[in-house]
Amino acid sequence: MLSHYKIITLSHQHTNLRDLAKFVLPELEQTIVHLLQSAKENFKIQELFYVSTCNRVMFLLYGEFNANENTVIPFYRHFLPQLTASDYSILKENVKIFQGTDAISHLFNVASSVDSLVVGERQILSQLREAYEFTRTQGLCGDALRLLMDQAVLTSKEVFSTTRIGEKPVSVASLAVLKLLRYSLRPDARILLIGAGQTNSIVAKILHSNAFTNVHVFNRSLPKAQSIAKLFPNGKASLLSELNEFSQGFDALIACTSSPTPLIDLHVFTSLVQNEKNPKVIIDLAVPNNVTMEVAELKQVHYVEIETLRQVASENMAFREAEVIKATKVIDSNIEKFSRLFKQRKIEKAFSSLPDEIKAIKEKALSEVFKKDLAELDEPTRELIEKMLTYMEKKCVGVPMKAAREIIL
User: What pTM was estimated for this model as a whole?
Assistant: First the structure.
């Protein structure tokens, strides 16, 4: 039954990320598998899978388990016995439970990135598929969740192919590189990356995907700088303290550190460029800025600051959110499709034993019920009767299944 589909979830929509972290299952795969397997037995769940992302914890299940605000407490206690009374209070206030078509709708919205923290980001579908595949290989999922996940993937693909929900970059890192590309830099352009935090780590990956090869990373921690630099064929890493002594020039500089005071002032800039006169692209993603206005206003410098990119990101996010209306129509259509598919699958499973049952009836008729009568007939007649019964056997299977499908459709 569709009502057997349920989702129990905590997400960024209703829970702050610090509290959300308390409800993430242990990282050890075997521990997770054991907990999920025992949960199936304890809570009358036929199929179950779990997914955790940086802003969502979600259980998708199929079974008789009556998920509600009372049963969700022992459900979570099964997985996380260390939770405190305060944690359970947070859980009761913020957990969302979906059942039947509401659960199907929620999954399709999540898979299509309509329910994401960043609307239109594509990573969530990969995370769902990876989590499903892991639990499937562990024997935790069956036909019901397979059918639902297949449709969720198709729904997500249709949303992204028929709407513009994934267009227009909304991350500062993506917009920074996009801005850089507008200056038509060569793949071997000399790029300095100042800082190796999360933002510049993403910037580096995008630079790599755009075939840039010559990136020098400066950071307070050398190992973090090295982990980014190794992405590039001519990547180099240095300590941030060595920046003042760097004299090999650059074509573009992207800065994003937590320094409370600017790192790139006129003295440092002059040291970096030496006597080069070609234009320099400087993208400052730090708050407060890592580059002084004295440098930003130089004629030689094409300067882009984070506030400009944030404004564009905000405009692009508004564009994506407007596409949600179109995406919702696609999702609603796919919920109806799934409802029909689910009913059709139930009929197929109900009829799965029919061929063997009809064949057994035929064999009994030939070997027992009409055995004496057939013995009195000649060989050609007996063969003809067997052919007729075999023909009827196939038709008796096909006709009711066809009629059942036509009723659904």
Answer: 0.72
